[in-house]
Amino acid sequence: MLIALVARRRLPKWAVPSVAGLAMFSFAIWNEYSWYPRVRDALPDTVKIVSAPVESAFWQPWSYAFPLTKRFIALDLGAAVHSETSPNEFVAPVMVVARWTPTQNLPVAFDCAGGRRADLFRGGQLLGGGQIEGAEWVTPGPEDELLAAACNGG
């Protein structure tokens, strides 16, 4: 619009709407690509990113050349509750963060000495003394990123 005023309205009629549309399209792309870095950088140091897969979509053809992150899983070690009886066991929230959806905080129990974890949102609970009751423990193996982040501090 400023250029149209300076040019004394000698621009074609399509110029201003085209530039406005291009600006909105550019902002939308920037907003999608900068979402993950902005959210990641806003997290406290106690939160460790466990997984952040990149994706492509046919309605965003540029994403095949430049895939983007639309979701990630993080572990909040700052909110961990340690067991008073078993020092290697603790419960920490696992955050499932996705673009355009509310963040989910899921409680997960970890046993670093035994190399196992239990999803408490599927059953089980943390008792007052830090004891974990009724959980189904699984031993995922050393390649499990969630267990590695919990037991190795990220």
Give an overview of the whole structure.
The chain has 154 residues and is α+β, with helices and mostly antiparallel strands. Helices cover 26% and strands 28% of the residues. The chain is built from 3 helices and 10 strands. The strands form 3 sheets. Strands 1, 4, 5, 6, 7 and 8 form a 6-stranded antiparallel beta sheet that branches. Strands 2-3 form a two-stranded antiparallel ribbon. A two-stranded antiparallel ribbon has the order 9-10. The N and C termini lie far apart (50 Å). The relative contact order is 0.12. The mean pLDDT is 88.
Instruction: Classify the beta-strand content into a percent band.
Output: 25-35%
State the end-to-end distance: 50 Å
The helix-and-strand class reads alpha+beta
Q: What is the average of the pLDDT values? A: 88
Largest sheet: 6 strands, antiparallel
How many β-strand stretches? 10
- What would you report as the Rg, rounded to the nearest angstrom? 23 Å
- Sequence of secondary-structure elements: HHEEEEEEEEEEH
Counting DSSP H or I runs of 4 or more residues, the number of helices is 3
Low-confidence stretches: none
- Anisotropy-based shape: elongated
Percent range of helical residues: 25-40%
Structure summary:
The model has no long low-confidence stretch (mean pLDDT 88). The protein is α+β, with helices and mostly antiparallel strands. 26% of the residues lie in helices and 28% in strands.
